[in-house]
Amino acid sequence: MTTDYLLGPVMLDVAGLTLTPHEKDIINHPNTGAVILFARNYSDPEQITRLIAEIRVARNGRILIAVDQEGGRVQRFQNGFTRLPPACCYADAPELAETAGWLMAAELLAVGVDFSFAPVLDVDCGISQVIGNRSFSTECERATALASQFRKGMNAAGMAATGKHFPGHGGVAADSHLALPVDERDLATLRVKDLLPFKALIEEGLEAIMPAHVIYKAIDPNPAGFSSFWIQQVLRKELGFNGVVFSDDLSMEGAAVAGGYPERARLAQDAGCDMLLVCNNPVAAEAVLESLPVKNNPLREQRLAIMRGKPAMDRETLMRSAKWQESSNLITELVSRYA
User: Fold this and answer.
1) What CATH number has the domain spanning 10-39+80-338?
2) Which residue among 13, 248, 249, 274 is the active-site one?
3) Is 186 a catalytic site residue?
4) pLDDT of 80-91, one tens digit each?
């Protein structure tokens, strides 16, 4: 079996601005399917374009390139990219949500990134510092409308969207990077608030979803990303979602309840995750790559195919375009007002 027609189930990261020989080997492992980039991988647009090209050459087959480029405190590429505001500020400028989605996506696509993990669909309940201003609103209807416009802009640029963190991370104080949050609310409460943005965007055709490393104790004993109830029953059957399910990072403390890294990967996959993120721990990533069986999965391939970026223009052409210049100026002005 060659890797030419395989898109593996693991998303991993790399250490620096260029690839090491060992990283090239790992990228070409048949279970590798994607690479996520961080601020440490970025110096300027030209460098990141070269790194992404290097990653694609290293892969003997298809691979997806992702980044977290929401805006605000979660924007990995800054120098040479338009600075984006946190999602909460679009409540005061709703006409710019679609513009911002287009701008974010167009700039990433122009350097070779396939998609950003955005938009955040969590409703801010006023208690989660890790979500906070990353949420579009404290009101589920407004959060839904603004996230929908942001996604519309992403799609117009040629980028698929990923809604996170299903079924809603805004109701817990703990940061799942550092602890395992427990949400005490029942399903009826979540249905009338936190689940509404996910439901609405799924009905609009949302391409991908990332579950939360949160336990909803009154509903299921497992964190949502390891729960067949949340992924198979609620997300797939009840909400009719047919897109990609990305696990949140299996290196986060909120995932530790599932056991060692191979156990985390297996449980997330059994629950229904199509692609497993293992970040900032290369030893763990290799353990997951080696532990999973190598097998073709046509359904996963079909779902993940939609995540490939469809850039309309290269970076030089984008920068010369009137649409980019106007959009960048509008968003830069919004950032200055927010600051």
Assistant:
1) 3.20.20.300
2) 248
3) no
4) 999 999 999 999
